[in-house]
Amino acid sequence: MLSYRHGFHAGNHADVLKHWVVCLISDYMGQKDKPYWYIDTHAASGGYSLSSADAQKTGESDTGIKKLWKQDTPEVLHGYLSQVKRFNTSGDLEAYPGSPWFAHQYMREQDKARFFELHPQDFASLKQIFGKDKAIKVAKEDGLAGLKALLPPPTKRAFTVIDPPYELPKEYDEIPKVIEASYKRFSTGVYMIWYPLINRNSKQKSSERMVEKLKRLKVSSAMDIRLWVSGDNEESGMYGSGLYVINPPWTLKEQLEKGLPYLVKCLGQPAGAGYKVEVVAG
């Protein structure tokens, strides 16, 4: 199934959380001289127009990035927001970048990236944006299957982002297996898995079951991060999202504690908004 298109959801509250943390970790990875690889197993498109029919249909950016635009935010959010502003050269919020674009902004000359994407249109967009960059390889392949061949990278340093659409229930079961196998091959890499928080239905149960399996993996350090903008008793829709990070930077928890309260205040809709940062291991 390739029906999922992120253009409908670009710039929503889940994107804010995910891309802010992508920026924080990418910035940390670049603080050491030794090169690293950035790997994105579900890269989607390099960017999205917020005035497109898809984005206008859902209006999800209205309760996401648009609430942060030109606000007096905590310093810990400045790096992320500066990249969004850099993507919008006109000075107005007209478009929103995807994960590959954010990560690319932090790459140095010695760093490399691997982007996987199966959807034909999104793959074509990635090739158009990054195809001429010799440090980046864009593959029209299953990213979870392709990850194994990349690990461990020659540099022995990597930041891997796994952000599937969760169109099929089997994806929730597949990810812990992929992470376990990846960690055995390359135990020092940073792995970040995004997952949705949905109302208490079968998908939410699948999401929680996946996280519990991830928590049972024997890793040196891990962190579970959640941001929800409304209560979990919603009739439908995604009320929040989470990130499970293996081998997180030692600076990450403090950064999250500085920025997440602001995101709850700014993005939270009813009184049920909140966040959680749980150190699972290490």
Structure description:
It contains 10 helices and 10 strands. Helix content is 39%, strand content 20%. α1 runs parallel beside α5 (99-106). The protein is of the alpha/beta class and 282 residues long. The N and C termini lie far apart (37 Å). The protein has an 8-stranded mixed β-sheet with strand order 5-4-1-6-7-9-8-10, sandwiched between helices. A two-stranded antiparallel sheet has the order 2-3.
In short:
The protein is α/β, with parallel strands linked by helices and about 280 residues long.
Overall, the morphology is globular
Tally of separate helices? 10
What is the percentage of strand-forming residues? Answer: 15-25%
Distance between the termini: 37 Å
Order of helices and strands: HEEHHHEHEHEHEHEHEEHE
Q: Please outline the major beta sheet.
A: 8 strands, mixed
Give the tally of β-strands: 10
Q: Segments where pLDDT lies below 50 for 5+ residues?
A: none
> Structural class, from helix and strand content?
alpha/beta
- Read across the widest sheet, the strand sequence of neighbours is 5-4-1-6-7-9-8-10
